[in-house]
Specification:
The protein is mainly alpha-helical. It has a single domain (3-65), classed as Protein Yjbj, Chain: A, CATH 1.10.1470. 77% of the residues lie in helices and 0% in strands. Helix 4 packs across helix 5. The termini are close together.
């Protein structure tokens, strides 16, 4: 996911992220503030998935969100 795109559209993306990954808390999203690496780490933590899988899911989400 393009880091600049995340930061530029962060407010709009938060709702979509929460809808897609319900285990992410509001605090997770507030702390993330568009930092893709932090978001990948939170996906790993909340869902118990590998970093590569978290990145893949985030890239797929980005493609769908366009």
């Amino acid at each position: 996911m393009n880091e600049d795109r995340i930061k530029g559209q962060w407010k709009q993306l938060q709702g979509k992220l929460k809808s897609r990954w319900g285990k992410l808390t509001d605090d997770d999203l507030k702390t993330t503030e568009g930092d893709a690496e932090y978001l990948v780490g939170k996906l790993q933590e909340r869902y118990g998935i590998a970093r590569d899988e978290a990145l893949k899911q985030l890239k797929d989400f980005d493609a769908d969100a366009r």
